[in-house]
Amino acid sequence: MDFTPLVRGRFLERLQEHLRYEHHAAAVQQGELVWLVEKAALTQMGRRYDFSTVRTYEDFARRVPLHNYDALRPFIMRMEKGEAGVLWPGVTRHYAQSSGTSEGRSKHIPVTADSLKRNHYRGASDVVSHYLNLNQSSRIFSGKALILGGSFASDAKVPRGVRVGDLSATLIDQMNPLANLFRVPRKDVALMADWNEKLPALVDAAVKANVTNLSGVPSWFLTLLKQVLARTGATCIHEIWPHLEVFFHGGISFEPYRAQYEAICDMSRMHFLDTYNASEGFFAVQSDWASQAMLLLLDVGVFYEFIPLDETDSSEPDVLPIWEIEAGKTYELVITSCNGLWRYRLGDTVRIEQLNPVKITIAGRTRSFINAFGEELMVHQAEQAVSRAAAVTHCHVLNYTAAPVFATEDRRGRHQWLVEFDDEPAQLEQFARQLDHFLQEACVDYQAKRAGSIFLDAPEVLVARRGLFDQWLASTGKLGGQRKVPRLANDRHLMDDLLSLNA
């Protein structure tokens, strides 16, 4: 039975709300800020900055400083221990685990009841609303959604009653039971932690279902789809799921994977819809087939601020509300959200593609990183792993850089490291193994993608000839006292240039 005609009206009602606020971003966002500070007025954060007397955005911006995760970590640790009303009202029992801090292996983002209802689930519903508007002939609710999510961390050192893990695990665990009628796999399979067991179980569930839509991270899903094709002997995924019509994707850039998806899909029946869905919140959704720009969601319990790109390294940067930004410019994104993140610097940069309504594209990170496969490997983690690998293998590293090698039809993706040694290790393979080991210790998301070599192959280490990086720096005009080699890159432009020089 196709339930799409029965529920389409409800979803399109939500779309009408979006259309009403298209030209009123300032008013909608000011309303969100008022709701946030009023809701949190009696929290410890609210009392510290006297939220009860905040009347304007200027009051708020003048009193509340910008925060990175390290600044909020002590408050979040108290929340995990069961303390109520710290950053947000009540007790918070769920936390989304993510990489990227300077003080530890991971950061724990609070997932409050309000953030689930007002942000994450509303954002997911908004995605479906826009898709139904874009595809008037959709029969998406005639079958099942195949959702590929993570799991809870079994070894997280947190108090009893607290659950830490991938955001997707919390979303699946707390989902309305009625939604389970329209998705696969079962919750117990979806939340399995061991991917060596989970992947075959996912394939078993998927091949038996009438799948109409996919939701997940492109790199993870490609692995699953290839396993489904291998199991069935099919060459096109629509041979297995003839009613499959859309992939809702996010987390990492889809572009490196687009060609591979198109190769295994019947593109006359398939659509791809981009989302900006992070551990910290659901922020934007593609709303037009003609453009990859995403509509910024303005009424989902998030107040947005923007730091001009040339101000990101300033100790006191200019910070702009949405009514002061300009189209065509790139900004670092700052959020205040109903998960208790107050004026929080995400580390993401976005380009404002248009105003009225505000549409964005993700420009990148404010720091060097690799997140080609959802691994969120940061420079400080790479530095630590390289240093430890060199110590164990009794060698000295002069310079290095790393970049992704994207998956092909016959091989998974991996990281490629180009390393200039002062004295080389006796066995390069041992250095590579130790580097992989210490990267997994340093970065929980890299560890998850490397588990069982299911999603990410072991890193490849290449030796750079002596002086290679100096030669490259000289060619860019940057050789000298302030020289800096980019350690990590999310694309291959730098790596390919260096490999050409190395040859």
What is the gist of this entry?
This protein is of the alpha/beta class and 503 residues long. 36% of the residues lie in helices and 21% in strands. It folds into 3 domains: 8-89 and 302-365, no CATH class; 115-286, 3-Layer(aba) Sandwich (Rossmann fold); 369-502.
What would you note in describing this structure?
This protein is an alpha/beta fold. The chain has 3 domains: 8-89 and 302-365, no CATH class; 115-286, Rossmann fold (3-Layer(aba) Sandwich), CATH 3.40.50; 369-502. It contains 16 helices and 20 strands. It has helices spanning 4-21, 25-39, 44-48, 57-63, 69-80, 113-134, 167-173, 187-190, 195-207, 218-232, 255-264, 379-392, 428-442, 444-450, 468-476, 493-502, and strands at residues 94-98, 107-110, 144-147, 163-165, 183-184, 211-216, 246-249, 271-278, 281-286, 294-296, 302-308, 320-321, 330-337, 344-354, 359-365, 369-370, 377-378, 396-405, 414-423, 460-463. The strands form 4 sheets. It has a 12-stranded mixed β-sheet, with helices on both faces. Strands 2-1-4 form a 3-stranded mixed β-sheet. It has a 3-stranded mixed β-sheet with strand order 18-19-20, sandwiched between helices. A hairpin with a 6-residue loop joins strand 13 (330-337) and strand 14 (344-354). Helix 1 crosses helix 6. The protein is globular, with a radius of gyration of 23 Å. The mean pLDDT is 92.
